[in-house]
Specification:
The chain has 219 residues and is mainly beta. Helix content is 14%, strand content 48%. It contains four helices and 14 strands. The chain has a domain at 9-101. Strands 1, 2, 3, 4, 5, 6, 7, 8, 9, 10, 11, 12, 13 and 14 form a 14-stranded antiparallel β-sheet that branches. A hairpin with a 2-residue loop joins strand 7 (81-86) and strand 8. The chain is flat, with a radius of gyration of 20 Å.
Length: 219
């Protein structure tokens, strides 16, 4: 069970003070971590203060975790946080959920959130006989599935990516061309439709979305 630590500051170093709460480090939550281990990261506060600590992203609840004295804590007080860096990825908080920033153009940007779910494994025959495979497994052309990890033998934790467009303070979840066009002015709709008809972008593929977004931001 998650223990709440009420309104106090966790001191990670002489200059690193963050509000936090202890985290439910259950098997499900742990296997929903984006990184296999905590990675050196940086938290930039809106005040300009820069803090460093071992960080991870938990797809279970779209939160940022940091580790202190062997215990995982959830980073809270997100209204004071400007940007979070973990390895080569950049994250920002939006309404208490943390998103990866795929672009930073100052116009309409592509953000990514991660989710996790438990999928049953099914028996499948291969050259080596019978083996367990993820019942929710998709083919390699679909990139919405980020990684799948074994869980309790007959199940797997699937970490998925969800794409969003951010226009000022507005967020638009992208599943269809119609969703994509909501982030842009009505006068650009015809040009975007023509682009989609000509290039057939995969709305589950980050590279396709980035190329299309670059085109739309120039309209």
């Amino acid at each position: 069970m998650k223990k709440i630590i009420f309104a106090f500051s966790i001191i990670l170093s002489s200059s690193f003070i963050l509000y936090a709460q202890s985290y439910d480090d259950s098997v499900i939550a742990h296997q929903s971590y984006l990184y296999d281990q905590f990675v050196d990261g940086t938290v930039l506060l809106k005040s300009g203060e820069v803090n460093q600590a071992p960080l991870n992203y938990c797809a279970y609840d779209q939160s940022i975790l940091f580790r202190k004295d062997g215990t995982a804590f959830t980073l809270t007080g997100l209204t004071t946080v400007d940007t979070i860096y973990i390895a080569d990825k950049k994250f920002i908080p939006v309404k208490n959920i943390v998103y990866e920033v795929a672009t930073h153009t100052g116009k309409t940007d592509l953000l990514i959130s991660y989710g996790s779910k438990i999928n049953p494994m099914v028996a499948a025959a291969d050259n080596n006989g019978i083996s367990n495979q993820n019942a929710g497994k998709v083919n390699n052309t679909v990139t919405s599935v980020y990684v799948s990890r074994p869980f309790k033998g007959n199940y797997a934790i699937e970490i998925t990516r969800h794409f969003w467009l951010k226009n000022f303070n507005n967020l638009y979840k992208i599943n269809t061309p119609k969703d994509f066009m909501k982030a842009f002015k009505e006068g650009t709709a015809l040009a975007i439709k023509e682009y989609i008809q000509q290039h057939h972008p995969d709305f589950n593929k980050e590279t396709d979305l980035l190329t299309m977004l670059d085109f739309c931001n120039q309209l």
